[in-house]
Write a structure and sequence with these properties.
heterodimer, A: 340 residues, two-stranded antiparallel ribbon, 2 strands, B: 501 residues, alpha/beta, six-stranded mixed β-sheet, 17 helices
Chain lengths: 340, 501
Amino acid sequence: MSTTSTSRPGDVAAPAAAEGRTAPSIARRALDFSMDQAVWILLVLAIVIMGIFKPSFYSFGILSNILVQATVLGILAIAISMVILLGDINLATVGTAGFSALLGVMAMKAGLPVPLAIGLILVVGSLIGLLNGLIVTKLRANALIATLAMNMVLQGALLAITGGKSITSLPATYKFVSQGKIGGFPALPIVLIVVFAVFYIIWERTRFGRGLFAVGGNQRGAYIAGIDVDRVKIGAYVVSGLLSGLAGWLLSGYMGAVTSSFGTTYEMQVIAAAVIGGVSLTGGRGNMIGVLAGTLLLTVIQVGLAVLGIQSTLITLAGGLMIFVAVLIDASRNLYNSRT
Amino acid sequence: MTDALLQVRGVSKVFGATRALSDANLTIHPGEIHSLLGRNGAGKSTLVNIIAGIYPPTTGDVLFEGQDLRPLNIFARQELGIRLVPQHENSFPDLTVAENIFSGVLPTRRGLVDWKRINHDAAEELAAYGLHVDPRTPVRELSSIDARKLNIIRAMHSGAKLIILDEPTTALTNRERAELFEFVRDLKAMGTAFIFISHYLGEVLELSDAISVLRDGRMYPVDDIEAVSEAHLASLVAGEEVELSRRRPDEAPPEGADFLRAVDLHSKDLQGVSLSVRRGEILGVIGFPGSGAREFCRTLFGIERLTSGTILADGQELHLASPAEAIRHGIAYISYDRHREGIMPTFDVNENIGISSYAGKLRRAGGFIDLALRRSLADSYRDALKIRCNSVDDDITSLSGGNQQKVIVSRLLNTDPRLLILDEPTVGIDIKSREEIIATVLELTRTGMSTIYLTNDYEELLRVADRLVFFDDGRVVSVLENKGITIDQLTAIRDRAKEAA
């Protein structure tokens, strides 16, 4: 009774070799590709459209200006991406940039040598990041509120200390990287390229970088897999602060001043650049190439609008619309990736 | 024979380029329990989702009491009496039992919710179906078995004639499973029909009136379930004969060669546990939820904190404050919760295998990871454990549950553990993957790796364990050599420990 020969289900015909998954169709692959590369496609489109309306857009002056403008935004976008990757947010990047640049410049005015002043800016940025990181990890505070408050404190302090006035007449050595040229080409974009290259490597090939992705993808799982979650998070905030400080130095050097509303034009664009560039707000997904593309796209649009002669009163509206576009692109990409 | 309640005729389903279901046929009569048996991805979910109206079939039709279901959506089908009870409890955990039963349609009195009547009616309904809980209890506080019964009662309350149970026994103890089956049989006697989805052959044979095996989207009806053997069913499910891995009696390691010694461990959940694990041994751990069995395992991996006690590995005292430290000391743990504490959903297979070795053998100077070594190790685990994927670049989420679990096993073996702790390693995975994982573990214990094996699948446990440890109330109550012990003896010891306490 119990031998297999008496049980009869064997008489069911064996199925023909099961039809496995066939290769996806060309249309499907094209859609996959354009979803992955949406930002680069938009960037090319934006450049082409600008050129159609204003052929002078393709001049060396304007194109190099785009790269110069993209540098500060790009560094701030990486700064915020470090934290967005975790599934957290750091709203204090611009405030950190302004406050640390202020302290550096004031110390310089008080007699601190330029290289040390620049170092001080980076250290102050990192320390603010460390404070953010400790508040978020050790006190388990909500990152959104904690960094929002931090940003208000820093910007408020900037306003209070400067008394609404700008600090100007900075020494040429301080402004060298921001305003200098190497063989007729501005030096600033070189910083952009170097920083992107370094962080590309950090994100893809280092323990810290992969830890960021792991924590953002599944924090509990990362802990169980042996990742030191708190250390990764604090590290991310410190690096975020360091990069904010770097952006603060470069921007103050570029403007030749620390103003009371330092960097506030970047506030909206920073998140937009990161998210348009594919850094998912839910954490765990993103790549440096995408952040670069998002940065360039926003800069092209902004410079383009200026070149086309759009009124400055419309800039806020344009900024708001950009964030909307960012959110819609992120949402549709998530929808597309979670299909089936 | 009564008229058919449900008829599925020639149903196929194609998703993009994947044929998920081919020419499925199924007939269910009132009061019948029909089991669908198959591996993950075999088409079970596709079939029941088509029956429930979650998506339409590509071809074929579905009749319920002779009525063509095609024009009806999921809600219209619920009205007719088709209810899908999902694997994960999806009732409202903060609402009471009564509110869950009446979900959505609370009776009112003068415009206000009539609590008196709700609780009264719910109590009657609970008593009628044999679930003895207070209707005012928040669902969060129910045991998992009671929560599962409640889901079925919710379906009955809304007039279900056909209830689809999607892997309802996952994470239940044997006793709870028996209790659930009794509950289902009572409802069956009232004329309710069930579709029962399961990975486990034994329980399917125990409960079913009819069985259909699904494999690669095709259905294989089992004609005579009285005569069919478990081995034959297993081969139908797997598509080939599955060889059950088991420990040979002569393989048990000698006494005295301890790798790990735990001395008088105290914590929130442990009340003085002393236990040793021999080198190369498979130590089976048995205990009800909260008995300390799982807590002991998790303490050894640094997830839970000790208040006092000593853990020694090779005579050296360990201070395990985190999983990272446990891994560094050669201790690896595979969690029962694969989704929360296992897979990294944004990573590919390659990185899911490598992640726990970043501070270990993949570590390079300057914080770098050895990507080439990560890749070659991932490829070798893929071959060794037969992980089914196109390449290790595939997303982990594209793999079946069984293959995901093999990836997790690979991840922890990649840390070169001297002690591997397996916490329900085979829950919710297919038979073939299960045997491949067990065979790998057996193989590694021969090279001296110790293993702690915690599972409620006692058939599986008795096949592989060298010794059995029974936990209750935060204490070790019994330690036995696994020599000729039957499942009945095992459960008797377990229950006696519970009753004595």
